[in-house]
Specification:
Oligomer: heterodimer
Largest sheet of chain B: 8 strands, mixed
Helix content of chain A: 25-40%
Radius of gyration of chain A: 20 Å
Largest sheet of chain A: 8 strands, mixed
Order of helices and strands of chain B: HHEHEHEEHEHHEEHE
Strand content of chain B: 15-25%
Distance between the termini of chain B: 33 Å
Mean pLDDT of chain A: 97
Order of helices and strands of chain A: EEEEEEEEHEHEHHHHHHEHEH
Helix content of chain B: 25-40%
Largest interface: A-B, 21 and 20 residues
Number of strands of chain B: 8
Strand content of chain A: 15-25%
Strand order of the largest sheet of chain B: 3-2-1-4-5-8-6-7
Number of helices of chain B: 8
Low-confidence stretches of chain A: none
């Protein structure tokens, strides 16, 4: 086998869907676009497609780089490529920017056909279920009747799970990584803090900030800082920053004293510079609402009875935002339905963000799993 | 000889053959300490049994996934409390009982989660082991291949000890098979067998 490589330079594509989409909330999106990328080739049998679902701030840009921006590496480039665990010589891999996103798919920054102005806060609530329906329509356009696998981490893992419930005959394998079948109260609480940071920014203007020529940078920055703390582990933060001081001594001022402050401010500023606040609000609500057991009186095994796929569930020992206990709960519910499921609890120090890293054990499990999928 | 027996004899592992014979096609099986999943793979091939393995070792998790065996990376010492009563037809623990600290609890849990349990263990009463002790040394053999200072085993017991425990805890021995390094032993098992295998149930 040759050295694992990159999928190289990639170009996003756009699909238009002129027919209306009735959303879970009851609202109707009259028409929409989805931006997506593909890597590898769809085989003649059309049975080697793998859908990669993105998390809160992710996008369709899963692997490779853009021609004009050499540093624009896809967010799961360590996983996807020729010779990598999700091998593009075998699989046809698809990344889609979800509805309500800010990377080109129809979202709050798009024009509302009813007003001619950006949707802003009037963009309807979108749920994990809505995203999966929209992704299925894209699969229809691409001529993919059944995915070899659907995989995602965090909020992306929720989409992979929903795929197995909404379209049990359209997904053979599902990879649900660092995810949960529903958020805990604590997890929703973090999302609410993030939302309040944005909603209370004077530049938010009720979500119609585009018209005022401003963006709620301070709110979005705070939201990201809170989120970032929860994505790392206490240990990884201690190892990376500890109590390291910027100036080597206590300055008794409000500027950066500790290196962790500098890091959080940097991450917050970077994020607020490109991400859309309305998209962030919508995506956190999608996380909160997801709960397939809700319509089954909280009975998760009953909710999963429709599923037919073979599952891989993986969690990380230091992930406290989506703890291993939540993954084990899902594992048990799948097992009670007699479904094939493997569960890996990866000992990785990096917290929730571990799912984006190339931890050797994590990638060995994924490689073995993808190798076992016949196409 | 039935076709079944010819098929199961092909595994090359006498203990796998016995376990396969004790199971019916389509059963639900949980294999505790499943290693690389080779028993479950064998049961799938000869008995059409789809089971789940429980394992902690990272390399074995990868090996099970490679073998197409469903494996759950959970710690057995934490018990099986998240499993339901009678969730499985058989809960298997192959050559691992002696390595579990909470012997009674795991046996109870196996017979709660499973309708029946299948266990196998090295017999400390095996004559070569007795001979080693008489000579003043801890036994090292094919079934107990470790030195006293590096053994993962934490419980050392004989066939007689195990059956006394079963009696005391109301565990019924449905079947027993005993072997001396792969050869069946039919008499004086506690003296002549290096490994014992049991199919266990609860007193009705």
């Amino acid at each position: 086998m040759s050295e694992p490589g990159s999928v190289g330079v990639v170009t996003p594509q756009r699909a238009h869907f002129p027919e209306p989409l009735v959303l879970k909330s009851g609202a109707v999106l009259p028409s929409y676009d989805l931006v997506y990328e593909t890597y590898g080739e769809l085989n003649a049998a059309r049975d080697n497609a793998v859908l990669v679902c993105h998390a809160l701030s992710g996008s369709h840009h899963v692997a490779g780089t853009y021609a004009d921006r050499p540093k624009s590496l896809g967010w799961w480039d360590n996983l996807v490529g020729p010779g990598k665990p999700l091998d593009t010589r075998k699989f046809f891999v698809i990344g889609v920017n979800n509805l309500g996103g800010c990377y080109g798919s129809t979202g709050p920054v798009s024009e509302n056909p009813a007003t001619g102005k950006p949707w802003g806060a009037d963009f309807p609530f979108v749920t994990v279920e809505d995203w999966v329906v929209a992704q299925a329509r894209l699969a229809d356009q691409l001529g993919i009747a059944c995915f070899a696998a659907v995989i995602g981490g965090s909020l992306g893992g929720m989409q992979a799970l929903e795929w197995t419930l909404r379209y049990p005959d359209r997904v053979r394998y599902a990879g649900i990584i660092a995810a949960a079948s529903k958020l805990t109260a604590q997890n929703i609480a973090f999302n609410e803090v993030a939302r309040q940071a944005i909603l209370s920014d004077p530049d938010f203007h009720g979500g119609h900030y585009y018209e005022h020529g401003v963006v709620p940078t301070r709110g979005l920055r705070l939201a990201r800082m809170v989120g970032h703390i929860t994505y790392l582990s206490d240990d990884s933060m201690a190892e990376k920053f500890g109590r390291k001081l910027r100036h080597g001594e206590h300055m008794y001022h409000w500027d950066v004293e500790f290196e962790i402050e500098s890091y959080l401010r940097y991450q917050g500023d970077k994020f607020a510079g490109f991400f859309d606040a309305n998209t962030y609000l919508l995506a956190t609500k999608a996380l909160d609402y997801f709960d397939p057991a809700f319509d089954f009186d909280g009975d998760l095994p009953a909710a999963l009875a429709r599923a037919k796929a073979d599952f891989l569930v993986a969690s990380f020992t230091t992930d406290w935002r989506f703890s291993p206990a939540r993954s084990r709960e899902l594992m048990h519910a799948l097992m009670r339905n007699g479904l094939k499921v493997s569960y890996a609890e990866i000992d990785c120090p990096a917290g929730h963000d571990s799912f984006l890293l190339d931890d050797p054990q994590y990638h060995a499990v994924l490689r073995a799993w993808f190798d076992g999928i016949e196409v | 000889m039935s076709t079944d027996l010819i098929q199961v004899a092909e595994s090359g592992r006498y203990d796998f053959d016995v376990i396969a014979r004790w199971m019916k096609p389509g059963e639900r099986v949980l294999d505790l300490g499943c290693g690389d999943g080779s028993l479950l793979k064998h049961l799938r091939e000869v008995r059409q049994v789809e089971g789940y393995g429980v394992e902690l070792d990272p390399a074995n998790i990868v090996a099970c996934v490679r073998n197409g065996v469903s494996v759950l990376q959970i710690d057995l010492e934490g018990g099986l409390e998240d499993f339901e009563d009678a969730q499985f037809d058989h809960v298997v623990m192959s050559l691992s009982l002696q390595a579990v600290r909470h012997t009674e609890r795991i046996l109870d849990e196996m017979l709660r989660v499973g309708i029946e349990a299948v266990v196998s263990f090295p017999n400390f009463g095996y004559w070569r082991h007795r001979q080693a002790i008489l000579n003043g040394r801890m036994p090292v053999s094919e079934s107990l291949p470790y030195q006293w200072y590096d053994t993962p085993n934490v419980r050392f017991f004989t066939i007689a000890d195990f059956e006394a425990l079963c009696e005391r805890r109301g565990i019924v021995v449905h079947e027993r098979a005993a072997f001396d390094e792969g050869v069946p032993v039919t008499q004086e098992a506690n003296f002549l067998a290096s490994v014992a295998m049991y199919r266990l149930g609860r007193r009705a």
